[in-house]
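Issue 218. Parser rejects a valid record. Input:
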Amino acid sequence: MFNGFTQDTIDFMWNLRMNNNKAWFEANKDNFQQNFNNPMKALGKEVFEQITADYGNHGFVHKVSRIYKDARRVKGGDPYRCNLWFSIEKPSEEWTSVPVFWFELSPESWSYGLGYYQAKPLTMAKFRARIDKNPKAFEKLIASLEKQNEFILEGDEYKRKKDAPTLKTSEWYNRKSFSLIHRQPNSEELFSKELSARIINGYKSLMPFYEYFITLDKDPEPRDA
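Output the parser choked on:
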């Protein structure tokens, strides 16, 4: 059961950033488990169980990041991450190629949302083709974002602008990837068990976007893809 992070969680992340070496980490491994890893796993499990109870048809899996960086990529740098995250996603060989729900905690801030980080070019071509075919349906979907202040749209854009069918769809039409993200500085809210309810409600509000994007691969290949 998730009961909130603690000030010890924040202190551990900052101390690890300043002492990112094996000797310090091994001496503080119990601190890591108790104040960082265990509550992150508890939060992820609680959110996952509620989301799968409500949306079990999607076949979601739940993953929590490791504190250890990939040894092949460290190359003399810091061996440990100072942040952790969990994700809720559909199983895939390339997790970046499917939409994914996530929560991340770092020394300065926390964030959560829905991301589509490295969608295949063909998938985004299908996305644009779907908008071209029925822009009103997508406008109806994104209208929900105008009524809230929890999530904002981020993501890389094409350098050469593409002609969207409508003004309202243009901000999405020119994205190579996207993230609907909420980000804020660390505060007392992290220390409350109510954090899980906020994340669950946020994911539920984003589920229509997930369902729109996860079905793109089933669309026919556009002629100009």
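Fixed in the parser; the record now loads. The radius of gyration is 19 Å.
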